[in-house]
Amino acid sequence: MFKTFLGLFVLAAAAYAQPLGVGLKLGVPATDAFKVVQQQSLASSQNFVWGPYLELRLPGGNSIEIDALRRKYEFLAAGTANTWEFPVVVKHRIGSGLVKPYFEGGAAFSRLSDIKLSTLQHRSNYGLVAGGGVEFHLLMFKVSPEVRWTGWGLRSFDGGLQSNRNQFTVLMGFGF
Predict the structure, then answer these.
(1) Closest-CA residue to 33 (of 73, 78, 6)
(2) In the chain, where are the structural domains located?
């Protein structure tokens, strides 16, 4: 039993030191995804964002991170819709202490699916991403609260229901 525990501990320590990180991001939007200009069919949007991330750690406190974040919306006339957002960001960590501030920037791509509204103009979108946060260790996890801005290039909806092109999200990452 002791050898098994020791072997798992050594494997976990080795995996922790590798330049590849994986984890889960959970968050809440700080801005609405839509603006209702006229009475429209938006019932609600879920107040959370979630999805996995993959991070390639590079020398000098830099890394490249790819996320797959999901949001869900409910429409009175058209049922539900899902958005998958794929931000690709370059991160730069500052310092080498227990708490490491970082800033990030990159591009994002999104895909809106399962929707039947006639005011839909674009299912796919692209934009810029900028953000910042701090990273610290909690036991074996890397915890990284952050604030992220996404500036979308297109409006998915235009008319009575308009997409908000500037969106802020507060995220919490838990990774290895």
Answers:
(1) 73
(2) 19-175
**Amino acid (1-letter code) at residue 27:** G
The CATH number assigned to the domain with range 19-175 reads: 2.40.160.20
What single-letter DSSP state applies at residue 118? T
* pLDDT, position 80: 73
What does the alpha-carbon distance between residue 79 and residue 8 come to, in Å, rounded to a whole number?
47
Number of residues that this document lists for the chain: 176
- The bridge status of strand 69-75 relative to strand 99-113 is unpaired
- DSSP E strand stretches across the chain: 20-29, 34-36, 42-45, 49-57, 62-67, 69-75, 79-93, 99-113, 124-138, 141-152, 161-163, 166-175
pTM of the model: 0.79
